[in-house]
Amino acid sequence: MDLSKPKPKKAHPETCNDQESDAAERCRVTETKAPADNDRDQHPRQDVQPKEKQDPPVTPNKSRSKTAATASSSPPARGGMSMPSQIMIMRMPPSVSLSSEDKELLRTADPLPPVTRETLSELDLDRIMRNIHLRTDANFETDLHFKPDLDGEKGLRKRAAADRYWSAVHIEIMAHAISTLNGESVELEVVPVSQLARIEGDWFQPRLPWMFETLQDILKTLVPERDHACVAQNLDVRLLMQQIRKGVLDLARLARWLAELLKMHCAPMRDQDADRMVTEISQGYDTHDMGKVVDGLRTLFGLLEMMKLDVANHQIRAFRVALVEDTIPFLQDYFFRRMATGEFKADDARTWYLSIPKQVTDLSREAEDRAFFPPAVLLRGLCELLLQFDEPASYPQTFQFDLHRLWQLRVTLQHLIHIDVCWSILEHLINRAECRASRRHIYSRFRSRISCLLDTSSDSGSDNLGTRLPNAANVALEIARLAHEARSGHASPKDVPNSLITEAEKSIKRHLATESPVFRHYRGILRHELLTETYQLARKYINMSPLAICESQRARVAAAPSMALGRTQRQREIVVIAMKLAHIGVLHWRVWGPLLYAAASY
User: Fold this and answer.
1) Distance between CA 492 and CA 478 in Å, rounded?
2) What is the pLDDT of residue 164?
3) Rounded to 10 degrees, what is the CA torsion of 159, 161, 165, 166?
4) 397: closest CA among 473, 350, 346?
């Protein structure tokens, strides 16, 4: 694939819409560690030139039969595609007996492969440059990486749909194979969509023609234009379907040609996938095992998706500097146009910003520096949202592209408060009796054990003891065990008195079921430490370019081991949070200050 760096066209945010600004339906951006392979293994080859002459496995037949021509009917609708007025259907040969489940599968499974040119279009360079989520994330994550979106319930649904599609393809191939052995002909016809309900017999929309059509479309986006004629010749859909019906299609030879073509343009680390595809299709073809053939086809489309991802990830690395540097004018233009047309409402965000000085009475320190006071108010407001006891009903609309970062910061800050409160409970239990271990030793063990429990979500709400503390019951048990160990020197959980466990549970309920004085005390300490670090960093960032802020953060992370000397683990965690909060706040101010907040006066 030709990956010489083209000069990126200036992206116009006005062309973005909600559908385009979201991550791809099949792919999402995530932060991953860069692969250990060298850069040549991470993106498609640029040093391998394709052969001038290809020895095609199939010689196209220029004469097309009337039956074969039916493969050119309109494709099924998917996503934003319009519904065709007529579709092609295939009638099941009489010799093919199917169960009711198989018939239902043929009728209801997706008509197109899980990977199509449309699903991969979000990975095109033009779409990447206009992807507002990616532009924002590029400021905070140095190792952005596209990968298939197969996580969570959405991923399960996609895998299930893919399984159903390939099972339907398997049945369709078997039907062709059986009809060929029995000398029967497969009937294909084009019918109006309006008449589908009146068609009798076992029929379904054939998937093979559109699978080959999709394969050809995707390949043309992955190989240079000089190879397009070769692709069109060897993937002539009408000819391939004619050969399938006659039982003369050499799938093994076609697979070898595909592997040779793909290896010319994919990253070297994808070669094994191409080889696996050839092995699966060849073994299935030689042994008449259509299940193996379908496995090979599935591997083929997975390889095509990974090749497109490799190209997109290479382009993200190549254009990351441009994406970051252009962040502020791009976002301002994007939001200004949407505000002008009424698509985006920012009044609530401005109201929230103006309300901060009224709700926060101790802004005297921020007011000492009048130039820094407006962004300091914004940072203070964010800090209060992150530290408040109850979860915010929502964040201001202007933070819509930072929501996941803000929620992560809130979870981390609440985690620190919970640890402080739990430590105060443990200290109270220890102070009631003679302590036989050093406090430093106890705190070290407490911190590691309690942090692990707080990071593990419980499936049972009863384990939280009616509080917001994750695994509250287990945390109480661990506090009681540590208190008993400090008192007696014995570490066996069986020796922990029930009265001690009960007291630990009651203390957790008292301090963390509601916004208790103890919770407010430790929140206040954390607020002071966090704001001190955040303001210091924000003053530094406020006049820096977005790229300079990113590089400053990267340099600070690299120097973290030496900077950690003399700091406790808690202090190091607060510094990391402050870096992220200052980055979010300053970038937000640079975008929204002139658009929304500048008119505010205090």
Assistant:
1) 11
2) 96
3) 20
4) 346
How far apart, in Å, do the first and last CA atoms of the chain sit? 57
Which single residue is written with the structure tokens 């190792």? Answer: 143
Neighbours of 221 (CB within 10 A): 16
pLDDT digits (tens, 9 = 90+) for 374-390: 999 999 999 999 999 99
Name the DSSP letter for residue 466: T
Q: Tokens standing for 589?
A: 């101010």
H/E segment holding residue 86:
strand 86-91
Q: Cβ–Cβ contacts within 10 Å for residue 55, how many? A: 8
Residue 483 has pLDDT above 50, yes or no: yes
pLDDT of residue 492: 65
Strand-pair category, 27-31 with 187-192: unpaired
Q: Which two tokens stand for residue 126?
A: 């033009």
Q: Helix, strand or coil for residue 251? A: helix
pLDDT beyond 80 at 484: yes
Whole-angstrom distance, CA of residue 227 vs CA of residue 583: 46
The Cα 158–Cα 151 span in angstroms is: 10
CA count, 13 A, side-chain hemisphere, 486? 26
- Which has the higher per-residue pLDDT, 38 or 301? 301
Q: Rounded to an integer, what distance in angstroms lies between the CA atom of residue 482 and that of residue 564?
A: 28
Lowest mean per-residue pLDDT among 52-61, 410-419, 422-431, 456-465: 52-61
- In angstroms, what CA-CA distances link 164 with 75, 104, 210, 339? 19, 11, 16, 44
Q: Give the DSSP H/E element, type plus range, for residue 28.
A: strand 27-31
Measured distance CA(564)–CA(574) in Å, rounded: 12
Give bridge partners of residue 30 from the DSSP assignment: 145
Cα(260)–Cα(264) distance, integer angstroms: 7
